[in-house]
Amino acid sequence: MIKEKVLNNVPELWSKYGFLDSYNRDVTSNWVSDRVIGIDKGVTLLMIENYQTGLIWDLYMKNDFVKNGAKILGWKHNNLISS
Predict the structure, then answer these.
(1) How many helices (H) does the chain have, and how many strands (E)?
(2) What is the pTM of this model?
(3) CA angle 23–36–58, rounded 5-degree value
(4) What one-character-per-residue DSSP string does 26-60 give?
(5) What's the DSSP call for residue 26?
(6) Tens-digit pLDDT profile for residues 55-66
């Protein structure tokens, strides 16, 4: 699902190892990196999981330091701070 959404807009972003590392659509012709950087794949997996299920955000917001920081910043939205 995510692959199809991205590839509809930037089909050249896919390689035999999965998504390439980066692209820039603000230049005259779309610039796409020719590299796949392994360390970035972990972050990509976290972002995909968070997009699909919200699990990463939920776990992050259960951390006492994060909850305290959110309160100090005045974040009041129910989805940001849970008891």
Answers:
(1) 4, 4
(2) 0.55
(3) 80
(4) SSSS-EE-S---HHHHHHHHHHHHHHHH-HHHHHH
(5) S
(6) 999 999 899 999
